[in-house]
């Protein structure tokens, strides 16, 4: 069994770079960002607690990006070539 990564998870997604535009706050896994928040793209993000994996497609498919605590002013800061975020989930073990 792996080690527990953390006991709390929280992030804020923004529809524009540099934390602009609409913001949504999340603390649970999200299989479809569009269905849950009506966002097709997330240009920036702040991870305040825990670590998360972003996927560029819904249902936890596609390219994966690990985001740990910190500020990501644009999607390139987490290594994504585009701002499309289809789904995300919490990292609970490593």
- Percent strand equals 35-45%
Unreliable sequence segments? none
Number of DSSP E strands: 7
As for the CATH topology, it is Gamma-B Crystallin, domain 1
Helix/strand order, N-terminal first: EEHEEEEE
Number of H- or I-type helical stretches: 1
Q: Tell the overall outline.
A: globular
The CATH architecture category equals: Sandwich
**Alpha-carbon distance between the two ends:** 9 Å
The tally of structural domains comes to: 1
Look at the structure and give the mean pLDDT: 91
Domain Beta/gamma crystallin 'Greek key': 50-92
Pfam families: Crystall (PF00030)
Keywords: Eye lens protein, Repeat
Protein name: Gamma-crystallin M2
Chain-wise SSE layout:
Layout: E1 10-16, E2 20-26, H1 33-37, E3 44-49, E4 52-57, E5 61-67, E6 70-72, E7 87-90
Antiparallel strand pairs: 1-2, 1-3, 3-6, 4-5, 4-7
Describe this structure in words.
Keywords: Eye lens protein, Repeat. Residues 50-92 form the Beta/gamma crystallin 'Greek key' domain. By secondary structure, the protein is mainly beta. The protein has one domain (10-90): Sandwich (Gamma-B Crystallin, domain 1). Helix content is 5%, strand content 43%. The strands form two sheets. It has a four-stranded antiparallel sheet with strand order 2-1-3-6, with no helix packed on it. The protein has a three-stranded antiparallel sheet with strand order 5-4-7, with no helix packed on it.
